[in-house]
Design brief:
It is built from 14 helices and no strands. By secondary structure, the chain is mainly alpha-helical.
């Protein structure tokens, strides 16, 4: 029997799932990341068992100085616990999400290039230790990441389709509500969506619709936080007293250098034996992309 590409892809995904399941950490253990998983399970379980409905989510960003996030993350976890209310349920759910990340990345890369390049991409991504670590425990950034990537997939699949573009912005806004580290994605995706409409020469009403989509989505998801803050004056005063200092150019460059080094170390790219295959893979992808365009050019102009 011929060993098909699809079978090999399924095997790769199954191996990735097995690797991640074996690393799964019990959320109530002492080594669990900062105790966030224990907190998240207890609150989500409390929503189910005691019908408690929190108005705010975890504190995010700015060194925990009172920046409250949307409670949508807790309600998402509560929906998962409806299936089976146990701490490990959330860990298994996170493993499924992280395997889903590989599937979405495969679909994105296949759409942009081809299935062979997509397979190389998930091989490089899926077996990277830093990426595997994201399956160890349930955490807001780990949950928001696949949601944002699904939004990216809708963007590149849209071809001017307003529903897909609006869905992309809804997903990006939802990812922000899960963890606000995704906020920088929004202006980039909004501009890309608007440029897509321009390319397909859509009427002005579509532009207004896309601009309003993330505004209304974020207003809906952060509505409970607004209700909470308006009823707690101390929190408003705390946020009002928050001072954010911007570094000078030297501080910015030092921070940029530190982040680049940390990024290379995290993905083992500082190792020459890892870096060279990655560079060669990128060169192959770029070269093939060029040939693909030339092939399509001849294909559509030969008649």
């Amino acid at each position: 029997m011929k060993f098909s590409f699809s079978i090999f892809l399924v095997i790769v995904l199954l191996i990735n799932a097995i690797i991640r399941i074996t690393r799964l950490d019990y959320p109530l253990s002492g080594v669990f990341q900062w105790g966030d998983g224990a907190r998240d399970f207890l609150i989500a379980s409390h929503i189910i068992t005691d019908k408690a409905f929190p108005l705010v989510g975890p504190i995010n960003l700015l060194y925990d100085y009172g920046v409250l996030n949307s409670p949508v993350y807790y309600y998402l976890l509560a929906a998962v616990l409806l299936v089976f209310n146990h701490p490990l349920t959330l860990g298994v759910f996170n493993v499924m999400l992280q395997v889903g990340v590989l599937i979405v990345v495969f679909l994105i890369t296949r759409q942009a290039f081809n299935k062979q390049t997509a397979l190389v991409t998930i091989l490089l991504l899926g077996f990277n230790l830093e990426v595997i670590k994201q399956s160890d425990y349930i955490w807001q950034p780990h949950v928001s990441y696949p949601v944002a990537l699904l939004g990216l997939y809708l963007l590149i699949k849209s071809n001017g389709n307003f529903i897909l573009l609006a869905g992309c912005l809804v997903l990006i806004s939802s990812a922000i509500a899960i963890h606000n580290s995704m906020l920088p994605w929004l202006p980039i995706f909004l501009i890309a969506a608007l440029l897509t409409l321009r390319k397909w020469k859509k009427p002005i009403v579509y532009y207004l619709g896309l601009i309003l989509t993330p505004v209304l989505t974020l207003a809906l998801l952060y509505g409970p936080v607004f209700v909470y803050l308006t009823s707690h004056k101390t929190n408003l005063e705390q946020i009002g007293n928050l001072v954010i200092t911007l570094p000078d150019i030297n501080g910015y460059l030092d921070n940029l250098k530190t982040n680049i080094v940390m990024f290379l170390d995290a993905f083992n790219l500082a190792n020459i034996f890892i870096l060279i295959p990655v560079i060669l893979a990128l060169l192959y992808i770029l070269k093939f992309k060029k040939h693909k365009y030339e092939f399509n050019k001849y294909k559509y102009t030969s008649f």
